[in-house]
Amino acid sequence: MSVPTVDLLALCTTIKAWGRELGFAELRITDVDLQHAESGLQAWLDAGHHGQMDYMAAHGLKRARPNELVPGTLRVISARMDYLPRDTATDWRARETARLADPAAAVISVYARGRDYHKVLRARLQQLADRIAAEIGEFGYRVFTDSAPVMEVELGNRAGLGWRGKHTLLLSREAGSMFFLGELFIDLPLPVDAPVSTHCGACTACIDICPTQAILGPYRLDARRCISYLTIELKGSIPLELRALIGNRIYGCDDCQTVCPWNKFAQRAVLPDFDARHGLGSADLVTLFGWTEAQFDQIMAGSPIRRIGHERWLRNVAVGLGNALRAAPSEALVAALQTRIDHPSALVREHVLWALAEATERS
User: What are the residues whose beta carbons fall under 8 Å from the beta carbon of 211, sequence distance 6 or more?
Assistant: First the structure.
């Protein structure tokens, strides 16, 4: 496709202004040269650190080659959208830490308490593409939001949205790490933005806090031990040796983010989509374990949590209940677990029996 005759520098300025109008905190532009990241990606895959996430390996090194993934791609517009709920208190990190210390609390990762970010970002990026097309005419593009083999953090790093932290997430001096990333692959040779320098220094707070020691060292994550992987991506049984370490985290884990000093600058969302729904920021384990499959599907409609399904939801909450029993034995917790002891799913039954055994061993 021929490149439209336009003032590319002016178009960049306009695109970034449109991005802010659409709810993005920042848009930056990078080229597609990720060759420097190929060896690290291959070593991570070869070590099996991606676990059951077969999609991470399915496209080989195309993840590091945007112009092979989408032929004709010349630039990537990397977008940041902040997701802290709009009513988040200034001491939110202390509050999140306090909930982890409450055995009966059901802790859900902050990003998952509102609407499904895939849908929100994808729709907004599509609107951005539509505006560009209306301005310059037809052009080649493709929208990505954590939905394909794209090295989002690496692209955001190269575009200057932030730097890769030691926990492997993108960090920004202005916004910490509590944001989503999305991309627009385009065939326009727009001017590129410069990357930023790293600012982690000697800090290892994220490595030290990880409950399962999934962060093997700076910039090295074994997803198979990560609580986000265990509660979201893993389809089968949660390894016995890791269950107690999960605590009351039933969907995702924010520990490496809440402890990060840069997240004192985390920004509130400008969109209502990421406000906590259905009390997911203050829920308790017993209540959530009592949801029927129909209730789960109804309540979680439009939520990223629905993708794991009711069976894995019960698996996760059962582990939380077992850990709660160990910390603070309660007849209510035992009674809740016993309601699922004959559940049709062998996966659920296994984790329920494990949880009940936690109480028996300490009785």
Answer: 227, 245, 246, 247, 249, 253, 255
Number of H helices and E strands in the chain, helices first, is: 16, 10
Active site residue ranges: 146
- The residues facing 184 across adjacent strands are 77, 143
178 near 170, Cβ under 8 Å? no
- Cα distance between residue 170 and residue 78, in whole Å: 12
Beta bridge partners of 84: 268
Say which amino acid occupies 76.
Answer: V
Which residues, listed in sequence order, are joined to residue 181 by a DSSP beta bridge? 80
- Report DSSP state, residue 50: T
CA distance 350 to 239: 12
CA 190 to mean position of chain CA atoms:
29
How is the chain split into domains, by residue range? 1-86+115-216+261-274, 217-260+275-361
Q: Quickly count: other Cβ atoms within 10 Å of residue 315's Cβ.
A: 26
Give the pairing of strands 249-251 and 107-108. parallel
Give the closest residue to 177 by CA, choosing from 273, 271, 109. Answer: 109
Interacting residues of 45 by C-beta distance below 8 A, sequence separation 6+: 56, 57
Q: In 3D, which of 36, 44, 80 has the Cα closest to residue 267?
A: 80
For the chain, the helix, strand and coil percentages under 3-state DSSP, each to the nearest 5: 50, 10, 40
Name 82's bridge partners: 179
Give backbone dihedrals phi and psi of 41, rounded to 5 degrees, phi first: -60, -45
Residues across the chain: 363
Rounded average pLDDT per 10-residue block, the chain, 363 residues: 71 98 98 83 73 67 79 97 97 97 97 96 98 97 85 95 98 98 97 97 98 96 96 97 98 98 98 97 98 98 97 98 95 97 98 91 57
Cα four-point dihedral sign 255, 259, 261, 266: positive
The residue type of 308 is: I
pLDDT at 359: 74
